[in-house]
Amino acid sequence: MAARRFATAIGMVIALFTAAALAAPVASASTVVSSGSSAKGGYGVAGFTDGAHLYACDEGKPDGMRAMAFLWVSGHTKAVVAQDFNGSNAECSDPYLVVDWIEVGTSYRLEACIQDGASGTPQKCRSKYGVF
Where would one find the signal peptide in this protein (predicted)? Predict the structure, then answer.
């Protein structure tokens, strides 16, 4: 069942990425990364699509944690954070628009974490690196 929910969530993210890629602005990239699992089996998914939108998806078993998505561009920490805090329900956060400042050839790091509450410390983080 958890695998089915994960597949459904990933399918939703990929569908969003595909639809958004048709209207790609400055840079065009789509990628996802999953955090490690909490003790109760919950995890976060971070998605970045079409060089414009950042998403966080809270997946797996309910664990009281929130999913966090972070995006760093060209090694600089940007205030680009998306979070899904409404539970493991196969829905993702609203997209955080980051267009206008990402150009083709720019390196990035996308990170997915889980976090306990709004002011908690991100944990179980995993990253993916690439170039737009």
Answer: 1-23
| Rounded-to-integer distance, Cα 73 and Cα 101, Å | 9
Please say whether the dihedral angle defined by the alpha carbons of residues 101, 105, 50 and 118, taken in this order, is positive or negative: negative
* Those residues with Cβ within 8 angstroms of residue 68's Cβ, 6 or more apart along the chain or in another chain: 44, 46, 56, 81, 82, 83, 112, 113, 114, 115, 122
- Predicted TM-score (pTM) of the model is 0.72
3-state DSSP of the chain: CHHHHHHHHHHHHHHHHHHHHCCCCCCCCCEEEECCCCCCCEEEEEEEECCCEEEEEEEECCCCCEEEEEEEECCEEEEEEEEECCCCCCCECCCEECCCCCCCCCEEEEEEEEECCCCCCCEEEEEEEEEC
Residue with tokens 């695998």: 3
pLDDT digits (tens, 9 = 90+) for 71-113: 888 766 555 677 777 777 767 887 777 655 677 788 888 899 9
